[in-house]
Amino acid sequence: MKNSRRLFLKSVFGSAAFLTISRTQFLDEILGQEKQKKIKGAGVKEGIVMLKWNENPLGPSPMAIEEVIKGLSASNRYHRPQQIERTIAKHHNIEPKFITKGVGATEILYNVPISFLSEKDNMIMADPSYNTTGRIASLLGAEVRRIPLTKNLEHDLDAFLSAIDRKTKFIMICNPNNPTGTITPAKKIKKFLDKVPENILVMIDEAYFHFAENPEYESFYKYPVEGRNVIVVRTFSKVYGLAGLRIGYAIANEKITKKIREVNLRGLTNLVAHYAVPAALKDYEHIERTKKITKIGKNYFYKEFSAMGYNVPKSETNHIFVDLKRKTDPLIDELKKKKIFVRNGSDWNKPTCMRISIGTMEENRAFMKALKSLL
């Protein structure tokens, strides 16, 4: 197989075939996706089922891969961050002055508390929810006020308002929420934002925006453009399949953008990511294919877990969160022995839960078969 791949690549790069090869064939060959007896997910070794990090099981966009290869030949050069920020701004039909790119969305989630919090301040966030920002706030010495989700697994925004005091500087909303996969309806967030004092910054993490189908969900990316004290964070790691290239961005008003850029490592995103992003944004076929396989996978898990007597909250992301009513540590350890990896709910103080990324159907079935053998 290795010889066949070498011959394929040699023929592609050594002839005009590179210009005419189909995108699907190109993706299959470059990622080693030939049919195999064992499971072979995109970007992982044969036989491994990786359902842990909410990655795109199809891999990157074929169009993005083609551009990355072009970018490699220019990787001896530094890049200009303004170029990719202009591309992202054009995608949203806004001005580049509202965009700050980051080394993944993670850098933005790090730098916002660094820019706006001190040890005298506090921030408010949901529990359970994505904890990167809360962890950094704690390291800075700020108080992190964690508000439990409602029974419907929404952000309890009334409780958020009650928790605000004169030391509150920052509020975090993850919507759709990680790890639960649930949303907080847009109308509730709008009412909440109208009541939040103007001196308090609200950051909305929309990493899973593309997967949300609930009609009550909306993005808030226009709020910063209107001058509101809101930051919206997006990533190219999920639906676009570029997790390993580490690129994300913030949309914020000019004043906030200027402050974030003071600590932001804008020049440290890698050059090939800048080649990949414009192509990934345009590859609507890959985006729709990713959303389709995600929906099929979620419906499969809903049905399987329901038949086993477990309730899985409807997810608006590319993962599910299930309560197995027993400690999952032993189960996860046994799954690891079978080369199957999922996320432990203990990471959010939910020791009876698992967060399971949606993979290919082959991966999803392998996980369910293994889990059933352990229960």
How would you portray this structure in words?
- The chain is α/β, with parallel strands linked by helices.
- The protein has 2 domains: 49-59 and 285-373, Alpha-Beta Complex (Aspartate Aminotransferase, domain 1); 62-282, Type I PLP-dependent aspartate aminotransferase-like (Major domain) (Aspartate Aminotransferase, domain 2, 3-Layer(aba) Sandwich), CATH 3.40.640.10.
- 42% of the residues lie in helices and 14% in strands.
- The protein is built from 15 helices and 12 strands.
- The chain has helices at residues 2-13, 17-20, 23-30, 62-72, 81-92, 104-116, 132-139, 157-163, 186-195, 222-225, 254-261, 271-282, 284-307, 329-337, 361-374, and strands spanning 49-50, 99-102, 122-127, 143-148, 168-174, 201-205, 230-235, 248-251, 319-323, 340-341, 343-344, 353-357.
- The protein has a 7-stranded mixed β-sheet with strand order 2-8-7-6-5-3-4, sandwiched between helices. A 3-stranded antiparallel β-sheet has the order 9-12-11, with helices on one face. Strands 1-10 form a two-stranded parallel sheet.
- Helix 7 (132-139) links the parallel strand 3 and strand 4 (143-148).
- Helix 4 packs antiparallel against helix 12 and helix 5 packs parallel to helix 12 (271-282).
- The longest helix is centred in the C-terminal third of the chain and has 24 residues, at 284-307.
- It is globular, with a radius of gyration of 21 Å.
